[in-house]
Design goal:
Blueprint lengths: L17 H11 L7 H7 L3 H11 L2 E4 L4 H15 L10 E4 L12 H9 L33 H19 L6 E4 L7 H10 L4 E7 L5 E2 L9 H7 L4 E8 L8 E2 L1 H12 L5 E6 L6 H6 L27 E6 L4 H11 L7 E8 L1 H12 L8 E7 L4 H14 L5 E4 L3 H5 L9 H8 L5 E7 L2 H10 L5 E6 L6 H11 L6 E7 L24 H11 L3 H18 L9 E7 L7 H9 L2 E6 L9 E6 L1 H10 L4 H10 L23
Parallel strand pairs: 1-2, 2-3, 3-4, 4-6, 6-8, 8-9, 9-10, 10-11, 11-12, 12-13, 13-14, 14-15, 15-16
Antiparallel strand pairs: 5-7, 16-17, 17-18
Helix pairs in contact: 1-2, 1-3, 2-3, 4-6, 6-7, 12-13, 13-15, 16-17, 17-19, 18-20, 18-22, 20-21
Length: 654
Amino acid sequence: MATPTGTASYSNLERLPLLALELICEYLSSCNSGRRSLFAFSLASKRCCAAAARERFERVHIAPQDRHQLEQVLARCNEIFRVDERTKYVRRARISGQVTFEAESVNQYLRDRQLQVWTDPDDNDHDEENSFSKPTSLMYFRGSAPACTQENRSRANEAWKPAAQFLASCTGLKDLYWASDDQVPRCILDMLRTNLPKCHLHVHTFSLRSLYQERGRLHDVDVDEYALATSPSLYGICVASTHLDSDGNIDYNEEAALQIVAGAAPNLRSVCMWHKLAGNSPKLLEAMRSPRPPWQGFFAERAETPQISQGRLWSLSFGGVSSIFHQRLQNWTSHTNFKELRSLDLSIRIDRQSLQTLTRMAEGGIFESLQKLSFLGVTDVAGNDADVAFSHLLSALPPLTSLTDESCNGEEDGRSAGSKVTFIPILERHGPSLKNFKSRNWFPYEDVQKVRQQCPNLRGLHVKLQHTEHDKEDKRMYQVLGSFPLIEKLTITFYNPYPPGEEENDLPIGFYKVNKTFSPQRLRSAFIARAMDVQRAQSIFQLILAANRAARPGVIPSFQHLKLRSVGDEQPWNDFERLLDWVGRSWVCERRFADIDSDDAIVREIGMSERLQLKESMEEAKDERRVWEEIWPEAKGRSDWMDVWHSFPLGQDL
């Protein structure tokens, strides 16, 4: 029977209630980077497009480089979001860029460098989700600029007013991330207080510019900046602090941060402190000759309310320079209640005294709420002694769900993860509860098996491996990595240090010879071991996926994402080492379809910009090219010989 004219035939998918379709879209929005599946679903039909609207327009990013560009961006946003009142879907907004700086400002270089390290250092690996994460470094963020002057405040406030008006129309906004070099203007603070009182403000470039002060000319904080520091919307801050800057000015932002945490900002829950050393200058040297005046509070003439309570931070991070950390730790324990702390990120090397203090706190039940710990290492003790000290802390902590052990003792002395004293408390104390585990130590097959047995709930794992010319053992390793039943994301760092030259065995420890000579066999072995092309990356991904599928037959595999990072030593010094880094490429692989049977993957290279710079540094490389052409004969005689190579199939011994 023919379908009546004007009657549409609907698929079973379109017959689902709108709520069910919206729940499907909610899942699709987070199942792969770039929300590819969500956008593909929205193109299926008008009904699917309507159901996807809530997730498609869930976020907005405003990133102008001047006032004119800000006007253009906002005009485009208004054009897109006024259709069907899409502003009601916006739940997260990020503001970066700037409008106060002039285009040719002397700070342009620092802003560009800060942008490079803002999130993951691997370029081309930045998805939309990373842009809302806190920065991994504030090394190049200059907290004193733009200066807190009446002119800059007025110009910024006037320029950002249209952005404040647009955000005010986003009635469902839950989180606003401020990552601009400009200070948060008063118009944004007023808008949050009046229109969006429940919205959380996360300031990733937090700095009270008026607290950079000349010695002998100390003054009160700027009233607009005080409004920021005490805003009830303030939820998270990332602070770059230096006691003295390169101009010899005194920076009181660390003292201010402690005061803010202790109650000035009542809803503050997350703090990241990045301690910096100022660049050397005559003004800095002059300022260092005199003692640093103590901070007098936000208003010197106003009696500060005595501290009667502690802050309630959930997340506390330290980065940058680790000097006087023990004193800083004492300050923070007196200003916030560590019993409520859920995440502690020690991305600095701390001293043994501080580690012992943390251990005593853990033994006393101070870290009763802690779920996540990141640890970089100890400054004044090394090797097994450092492992023993850290193992005491691990044993005293409550079971963690996320652990990052970046202490690099294993890399320094060649020990595996399993040979370290910390390995036992990690597995026995925290293994059953761990969902994410990252380690900088290299893992042999036996250690990965132990992690597999003791950590059944892992969703994310970051390990270091050493791949070789003969990769039958590597294949076995990939299979055990895939057999984690709930694993979703894997990061594998292939660490292959540059091989020593023929004459380097007699050099004293710590000496390095730049102009090395290598035997042809050593060149050949190193090239074959490091070569990682797109086909090999995809083969590794599919091998892990197959093992994950076999771990739970009949269930959609949990494994979705693989990052392969191939690294040598810190810097290549000669053509051979540059060529090793040229073929040792890094990749991200993701499942194309989230079904039971599909093996299709999307593979993209990361770290490409740094790799392309290697070509510019290459010289003649005669000996290396001769071996290269023996391994890959198709490159012989070609001007683009560096681009003619391939990896070798898994399991093939050469």
